[in-house]
Each structure stands twice: as structure tokens, then as C-alpha cells.
Design a protein that fits this description.
alpha+beta, 8 strands
Length: about 140
């Protein structure tokens, strides 16, 4: 098993710890909306990295929005997943093994973006506040 390195952000590290320690009963929201924990391999450290992300679903697929709050750069987890798209999701008490792909098709992107903004309305403002196109990724079950 690979080493787990907690986030350098105390807020993120504490939320992941609470979420996992409680079996998905606590730490499951951000700004009152549901989150999942995405575990992936760090592209440089090769250690396990865990990130709480907004829970956005499309059937059995999860939509990941690499917004970083509208920052000018993509979040580190995005680069890690692009390097190794095999991830583990914790959605409350359930754990899923998923494979992630970036959405490049315009029609698919528009449809999924609408779902994401409905689930977490600030995404719209994040996109308007940055010059980069915020990446959308889709996680599909592998098991």
C-alpha cells in the first residue's frame, strides 16, 4: 500500500480525516453541499493524495470540476489525475474504484457543465472570474 500524505491545507486534511474516521457520517459537506473524497496517486511523490470535491453526479458517473475557486491555474489534483486516471472515491460510506477522463466534446461538456452548476452554483462565477477554461472530468466505475 502506498503512503498517504495529507494535504498541506489544514482545512482539507481535517475534513478528509473526519470524513474517513466517521465512515462517511461527518465532514460530508462544504458550504452546506455534499462532497466526496477522491484518492489518487501524486504524480511526483507517488503517494496517496486525498481531496474533498463537490459531489456532482450524472447517473453512475461523477463529474469533477477543476475550478480551484476560479484561480488562474488548475488544481494539483487535476494534474495528478491526468498523470494516473485510476482513482478511488468515497461517497459517504461507499467506496468506488473509478477511471477518470477529461471531457473534450463540446456537447458533452455543455451538458455536464449544466449539471455541475446546478449542483454547485458558484462554478458559474468561478468560470467568469478566470481566463482559463475550467476542466471538466468524468469518473466512470471500473468495478
Amino acid at each position: 500500500m502506498r503512503e498517504y500524505i495529507p494535504s498541506p491545507s489544514p482545512r482539507v486534511a481535517e475534513q478528509v480525516e473526519l470524513y474517513e474516521k466517521s465512515g462517511g457520517r461527518e465532514g460530508t459537506t462544504l458550504d452546506g453541499l455534499p462532497v466526496i473524497i477522491v484518492s489518487n496517486q501524486g504524480r511526483k511523490t507517488h503517494a496517496v493524495r486525498k481531496t474533498p470535491l463537490m459531489r456532482v453526479v450524472d447517473g453512475s458517473h461523477y463529474i469533477l470540476v477543476a475550478s480551484l475557486g476560479g484561480a488562474p491555474t488548475n488544481p494539483l489534483w487535476y494534474h495528478n489525475i491526468k498523470s494516473d486516471p485510476n482513482v478511488k472515491f468515497r461517497d459517504r460510506s461507499k467506496i468506488y474504484h473509478m477511471r477518470v477522463r477529461e471531457v473534450t466534446n463540446t456537447n458533452e461538456r455543455q451538458r455536464l457543465w449544466s449539471i455541475a452548476v446546478k449542483a454547485f452554483p458558484p462554478y458559474k462565477n468561478y468560470q467568469e472570474s478566470t481566463d482559463r477554461m475550467i476542466p471538466l472530468l468524468v469518473a466512470e466505475p471500473t468495478d
